[in-house]
Design a protein that fits this description.
Blueprint lengths: L11 H13 L6 H8 L3 H8 L2 H23 L4 H17 L2 H9 L1 H9 L4 H19 L9 H16 L1 H4 L6 H14 L8
Helix pairs in contact: 1-2, 1-4, 2-3, 4-5, 4-8, 5-11, 6-7, 8-9, 9-11
Length: 197
């Protein structure tokens, strides 16, 4: 008699994927519910992820990272044009993301903390991702920034956040026109010429 196959072992990556599915569907993240769905103890899940906020930040990072890679693969050119193109692709997608807008609408203050806090894994990794994009262009000899890569990446990301989450920050709904203004500002920060120049 053959033995029953052993079910695959659940890992922290499974917990992140599960949280990601819940978020995309507009469901609130509850550790007890996730633990039950994964068939593990809540203590195990908590040991893996630390907290609901950290788990959500990790889940959102996987989505952002995929979007960032897609933007880099689809954007032609090099130097300033390339970086601005990647920036525009990512942030235009986020600006019109229904799951993101729903998340913000459910609890704006909580969403802002998860999306923009310096303590969030999402924000810090977003800055690191842009720093990597900038450094790659510097290494290729296509970009000569006037400030440190880390500071430049930080300012670029904060500029995007001020546009994407303007309804929470300043009470103005996010607009495509403001994103284009942000792209122009990034071009200036990178030492590129604007269309009007």
């Amino acid at each position: 008699m053959s033995e029953k196959p052993t079910p695959p072992r659940v890992t922290p990556a499974d917990a992140i994927r599960c949280a990601r599915r819940h978020w995309v569907k507009g469901r609130r993240i509850h550790l007890a519910e996730l633990a039950s769905e994964l068939n593990i103890g809540r203590a195990t899940l908590f040991r893996w992820v630390g907290s609901k906020d950290k788990l959500l930040g990790e889940a959102l990072w996987t989505l952002y990272n995929e979007l960032c890679q897609e933007a880099q693969a689809r954007t032609p050119g090099q130097g300033v044009d390339y970086v601005v193109g990647v920036y525009r692709h990512i942030n235009a997608t986020l600006l019109h993301s229904q799951p993101l807008q729903r998340f913000i609408g459910q609890d704006p203050e909580y969403a802002l903390r998860i999306l923009t806090s310096s303590q969030s894994p999402l924000h810090s990794r977003t800055v690191d991702a842009f720093a990597g994009i900038l450094q790659d262009q510097v290494d290729r000899g296509q970009l000569t920034p006037a400030m440190g890569i880390g500071s430049l990446a930080y300012f670029i990301v904060r500029l995007a956040e001020s546009c994407l989450y303007s309804d929470i920050i300043s009470g103005r709904p996010p607009r495509d026109e403001e994103l284009e203004d942000a792209c122009t500002a990034v071009r200036i920060l990178l030492g590129g010429q604007t269309a009007a120049a």
